[in-house]
Amino acid sequence: MKMPAIKRLVETQPLPVLVAAEEALLEEREPSFEVEGEDEGEKLTHVFAAIFILNHMQDNGSEFKDAMREFTKKVRVSLN
Predict the structure, then answer these.
(1) Distance between CA atoms of residues 45 and 22, nearest Å
(2) What is the DSSP string of 38-70?
(3) Which residues of 4-25 are buried (b: 16+ CB within 10 A; e: fewer)?
(4) N or C: which end of the chain has fewer CB within 10 A?
(5) Structural domain boundaries in the chain
(6) Is the whole model's pTM more than 0.85, yes or no?
(7) Gyration radius of the chain over CA positions
């Protein structure tokens, strides 16, 4: 998971486009735009993170750094 790649997605792609990219990756298709990542799993992680962050920002009126912090907290909890 690379934070700069996630940040670029948040800054350049609207939520519906990210959701479509997530669906494409889950169906083993290429998204309509370039997603950085070494493999499909990392690309999917970047898209999923961007979706979470955009939703968090909209729902809570938070800034990117705060939403990213929330996402990384959830990742850490799921790994424990």
Answers:
(1) 9
(2) SSHHHHHHHHHHHHHHHHHHHHH---HHHHHHH
(3) ebbbbbbeebeeebbebbbebb
(4) C
(5) 3-79
(6) yes
(7) 12
